[in-house]
Design goal:
Blueprint: H1 3-36, H2 52-65, H3 70-74, H4 86-99, H5 113-132
Helix pairs in contact: 4-5
């Protein structure tokens, strides 16, 4: 290959890259202009207009009508009852730390049934203390 054909091929590659870059720059400039003019923007709606009960009712109707496959129904958690209060969680954590039922570093811990009961009772006492102080 002689120098002339190499220079010609290099020039063609360079011009192709320059044209691609120019097209990319024009597209990016148009998107910026759209944004400045109030054009396409991503809006996240964090407020739900549907309650959990409404969703569960729609889900139950869809299941009854056979509109869901097994994969779609697998990831719906069942209601678990009343959630723990902040005081219960704090009391149970402190009790678990006190009795050594918390994993730390590489130390693996499996609490016994008796320790789990102590932890649960600490949460119950916390709720009783909150009710008594009201």
């Amino acid at each position: 290959m002689n120098r002339t054909s190499f220079a010609a091929k290099a020039l063609i590659v360079f011009l192709g890259l320059a044209a691609n870059f120019a097209a990319f720059a024009r597209q990016a400039a148009n998107e910026v202009d759209d944004y400045r003019e109030g054009g396409p923007q991503i809006v996240w709606n964090s407020q739900s207009t549907v309650s959990r009960m409404d969703v569960l009712l729609v889900l139950a109707r869809a299941r009854k009508a056979g509109e869901l496959n097994s994969i779609e129904t697998r990831f719906v958690p069942a209601p678990t009852g009343m959630p723990l209060t902040r005081a219960q969680v704090k009391a149970e954590l402190l009790e678990a730390i006190r009795i050594g039922a918390i994993e730390h570093g590489k130390r693996s811990v499996t609490p016994t049934a008796e320790q789990l009961e102590w932890i649960r009772l600490a949460g119950v006492r916390a709720v009783a203390m909150n009710v008594a102080t009201r």
